[in-house]
Amino acid sequence: MFIKFSLISTLIYEKILNNGVAKAMFDVITKAQIFEGWKLDFLILGKSSYEIEEIVCELHKILSPTVPIIIYRGKHINITDTNSAVILTKSSKYLNKFESSFRFSTRQRKNLNIFVYCEKIENKIESFNVMRYSTVRASMFEYFFIKSKIANIIELQTISWFSDKICNHGHFVNINSYNIYTQKWIKKLEIKPKFSNFYSCKLYAGFNESTYYFHYIRKFGNKIERFGIIPMMIEILAKLVNFTYSYKEYSFAMFENINRKEDNLNIFIHQKQTIALPSLENIPVIETSSIVFVIPPGELYTIYEKLFLPFDRTIWILLGLTFHIAFLIIFILNFVKKEWKLHFYGLNVNAPALNVLSIFFGISVTKFPIRNTPRFILALFVLFCLVFQTCYQSKLFEFMTSEMRKPEIQTINELDEKEFTIHASIIFKETLKNFSSWPSSRVEYAPSSIPKIVYKFSEISTTNERIAIISTKDIVLINEFKNNVKYKILNEPLITTGVTLYSHYYNNFLSELFYETLRLLLPSGIPYNFIQSHREIFYKISKEIDDIEPQVLSLYDLDFGFFIWLPFVGVSIIVFLLELIFRPKKLKIVKIKFAKIHPMPQGNIDESEVSLTCEDMKISEEKKTFN
């Protein structure tokens, strides 16, 4: 599992007897477990006392018997396989001693979900600040169980930060109340993010000039350019919770001054760690480790493939359906009466299918229909074909005169599906086993020296073998390949926890909001699913070539040419249907024959010689119908 986050740090203040505190604690833990999907692994106890033992006994009744309990008696505790813990201490003064023993356990690269019970804390805010820089830094939420002045009532509280003009000031906020007698919550128990509004507080996004993760923040002279997922997250959060941000370069010596200003908080920092940090004080809630895949670009399109590129799939499908319907109607009309053909395209049209094809390809029409409605529809089809041909020819010329490549690899899944051979450092052996199904025959591991892998990749890439290289040292790969158009750098960040060799660290103050935003963006716990759904972000970040490739035409681009004539077609079809419905059953043709008239004689003509009678003119009416 690659995505793990610290869960809850619960502080129970004052001396609380009865088993109600155990039940209240259990309810909050259970709710958080459902919300976050975590399990309680073990229980750590401070110096034993009667009250603590009583709470432990009650917790044992409701917790799984498999949960181990460790009694802390001032010795170091080695934590190996766990994600969460409950700490019960008699007084807050033991926390510092207890935290010192924790420092050795963090070498296991585990983030702990810590639940702390303290009987006596004189100054709540001060004690919280002490713990905030030690054990509580590994937590997601802080909940406080405080005994109310009302009998048998426990107040569930949290600290709300950024609640007034003093941006780093916090105060307690009542979330819910628990009745020990009825063992019920007054309101519905909900798990909510700690921060809701930052009231336009100004926050710094610190970065270091030696930061080698190129796709986050880079400095060019006095100009700071922002790239990648972290600036995107900061912009989202700034709109979400109302704060302003600015980027500030710092050295490691300046970090304490920036982070501890009264009116500012550092959102996140970048630093390079060569060993695991030995202190919980420096463990972040969210940590990213960037894995870089260097892969060949997409293959070039062939000339024949470019013939179909000008239009997208939707246009080609609609065009195919249009011709299928036209030819189907023509085929059916071959088996009906001739009078139906008259209404569709006329008896004079002997090759209607050839008519459709000749118009589409710009050839003259063989014969024009004799009726007005088919003529009008045919004229509109001619207009449609002219628009279609013009768009297609212009785009085809643009495609033929440019070197277009097929889509590049965007996800780890595609590397696997296309059977790429993976060349990686030996340090990624366990990582690849956990989240990839690549067979061992297609994975080659090299020593941890990154330059050797780069040179090896350069040698192998001259062949046609499908290969990719994995590394964490982005700067080496960028310097090697940024000016080489043959390769593309694909970033594949992994969201992890704990302390790894090369990491980015977020400050704990915004960890909850980062986490909640990631929860919305992340469809599952697998990193490449996140990249697949938001691949444009990483693709645009890592792409070093600014060449603009021609874009295919879609229905949105051709909406005028396609749809401007649809109202006319609709009216024509309605008129055509009305003609079919109300047409006469039979058509009568009257033929008139006139009598033969002899030529006029020359000279003077006697009027009596000229006579025209009905017998000389024969009128015959013949009724003929079309068989």
TrEMBL record:
Its main location: membrane. GO terms for biological process: detection of stimulus involved in sensory perception. GO terms for cellular component: plasma membrane. It is a multi-pass membrane protein. Keywords: Cell membrane, Glycoprotein, Membrane, Receptor, Transmembrane, Transmembrane helix. It is found in: Cell membrane. Belongs to the glutamate-gated ion channel (TC 1.A.10.1) family. This is Ionotropic glutamate receptor C-terminal domain-containing protein. It comes from Polypedilum vanderplanki (Sleeping chironomid midge).
